[in-house]
Amino acid sequence: MNTDLNPDFTLDLRGESCPYPVIYTLEALEGMNKGELLQVITDCPGSFRNVPEEATAHGYRFACDPVKNGQEFLFYIYA
Amino acid sequence: MKSAFRFLFQQYWNPYLVLALAGVLSALYFALTHTVWAVTGEFTRLGGDLLLLLGVDVTGWQYFQLVKLQDATWSRSDGWIVWGMFIGALIMVLLSNSFKIRLPQQRRRYVQGFVGGIIAGFGARMALGCNLAAFFTGVPQFSLHSWIFIVATGIGTFWGAKLTRQRWWKGRPSLMAGAARPSKVKNRVVQPWVGGALAIAWLLLVAGLFAAGYRMLALGALFGLAFGVLIERGQICFTSAFRDLFLVGRSLMARAIIIGMAISSVATLLAIYAYDLTPVTQVAAPSTLVGGILFGLGIVMASGCETGMMYRLMEGQVLFLPVFVGNIIGATLLAYAWDHLGVYGMLVEPGAKVSLLELAGPVGALIATLVMLGTLYALTLHTEKRYHRNFALKRTA
């Protein structure tokens, strides 16, 4: 499950419940420079769907498919 | 077999499908028991049970007479619905191997959850139902109070979403430079076995209740199980339906709920005429509006309503423990305020039970309901579009 990506920043959201994962993710992306890579680690089941869907809807691109790691998900998103 | 298991438990189900199923099942539950799928009434009774246990004599409280506080939770079909929903959600969580104790990093969430839970419980009971009896199963009963409640919930969640955006409320996340290590994954998988055993045990219990002649309780336990399965697998969150529309322009859940209600309205109408049933009509009064606004605000503060809280707690999201306790405290406070603090006389007495079926007949009531839901749908799409238009402007600016 290891990816060869080198994220510039990481948002560790383990434990946080919805809607905060999606709010935090969008905020972090907004604050980063274009082209930088963000890694998101989240374990709120609602966020498995709303984080990738909303990041896409807000115009951000994924570096790879979401990675399922046990009870959590990892997302790699370009700002 | 293996691929079917994967299909059912490795991914969440389509919310449209889940809510359509929930809509049909709730109509069927009404046809079989003449009561609606609801949870907060039982929360109030649980509060009453606790007070009785502590030696407080609540038998004279009007609200407990209204919601028929009798016997214990296991001799009430509404009680079996609630416990069935918890168990159904837990079974799904375990079968999909997704249970995990999740502790919020932001400590303030516990306080927010507790306070929000109290406000949501208080508001829901003031309006005589939460997102179920005054919303998802209220509209299909053609009870006008649910129309008021929907508008009120919209107003409350709008304010709630504004609050959520405040820096002091949402807190600052821990953005770190570089990569972080993901958690280690356990190789031994035990959760699905526990889930399977729990499912068999609960179904045996349902069969036992039927065999012993407790038909209503058995139906409560069975439908509760089904509703629990559905809300967990579909991640059905009424709170997010409104809130995320305002917050991030997300409309999926709102659209699915509206379509589910439309299907349920047709199915319920058929049941009413096929079996000659009396629809459940609740009083429409100022209390519906005030209660709905409080409910909407409370569920956003708590990050979950009385239904969404149930499956999230079963997933191991510890935040929802104070929310659950808050819900019961809020409902009980309302039961006290009802006659002791004059809520009834001030906000409920001026109202009346208004049934659209009596007002407009079956065809008129159905058309009116579908037009109202269609308008809601259009408003949802409009709000989503407006959000994204503003967002695009902000990005290019």
From TrEMBL, chain A:
<keyword id="KW-0808">Transferase</keyword>
<dbReference type="Pfam" id="PF01206">
    <property type="entry name" value="TusA"/>
</dbReference>
<dbReference type="GO" id="GO:0016740">
    <property type="term" value="F:transferase activity"/>
</dbReference>
<dbReference type="InterPro" id="IPR036868">
    <property type="entry name" value="TusA-like_sf"/>
</dbReference>
<feature type="domain" description="UPF0033">
    <location>
        <begin position="11"/>
        <end position="35"/>
    </location>
</feature>
<comment type="similarity">
    <text>Belongs to the sulfur carrier protein TusA family.</text>
</comment>
<dbReference type="InterPro" id="IPR001455">
    <property type="entry name" value="TusA-like"/>
</dbReference>
<protein>
    <submittedName>
        <fullName>Sulfurtransferase TusA</fullName>
    </submittedName>
</protein>
From TrEMBL, chain B:
<comment type="similarity">
    <text>Belongs to the TsuA/YedE (TC 9.B.102) family.</text>
</comment>
<feature type="transmembrane region" description="Helical">
    <location>
        <begin position="252"/>
        <end position="275"/>
    </location>
</feature>
<dbReference type="InterPro" id="IPR007272">
    <property type="entry name" value="Sulf_transp_TsuA/YedE"/>
</dbReference>
<keyword id="KW-0472">Membrane</keyword>
<keyword id="KW-0997">Cell inner membrane</keyword>
<feature type="transmembrane region" description="Helical">
    <location>
        <begin position="359"/>
        <end position="379"/>
    </location>
</feature>
<feature type="transmembrane region" description="Helical">
    <location>
        <begin position="318"/>
        <end position="339"/>
    </location>
</feature>
<protein>
    <recommendedName>
        <fullName>Sulphur transport domain-containing protein</fullName>
    </recommendedName>
</protein>
<keyword id="KW-1133">Transmembrane helix</keyword>
<keyword id="KW-1003">Cell membrane</keyword>
<feature type="transmembrane region" description="Helical">
    <location>
        <begin position="287"/>
        <end position="306"/>
    </location>
</feature>
<feature type="transmembrane region" description="Helical">
    <location>
        <begin position="80"/>
        <end position="99"/>
    </location>
</feature>
<keyword id="KW-0812">Transmembrane</keyword>
<feature type="transmembrane region" description="Helical">
    <location>
        <begin position="111"/>
        <end position="136"/>
    </location>
</feature>
<dbReference type="GO" id="GO:0005886">
    <property type="term" value="C:plasma membrane"/>
</dbReference>
<dbReference type="InterPro" id="IPR047732">
    <property type="entry name" value="YedE-like"/>
</dbReference>
<feature type="transmembrane region" description="Helical">
    <location>
        <begin position="12"/>
        <end position="32"/>
    </location>
</feature>
<keyword id="KW-0813">Transport</keyword>
<feature type="transmembrane region" description="Helical">
    <location>
        <begin position="213"/>
        <end position="231"/>
    </location>
</feature>
<feature type="transmembrane region" description="Helical">
    <location>
        <begin position="189"/>
        <end position="207"/>
    </location>
</feature>
<dbReference type="Pfam" id="PF04143">
    <property type="entry name" value="Sulf_transp"/>
</dbReference>
<feature type="transmembrane region" description="Helical">
    <location>
        <begin position="142"/>
        <end position="161"/>
    </location>
</feature>
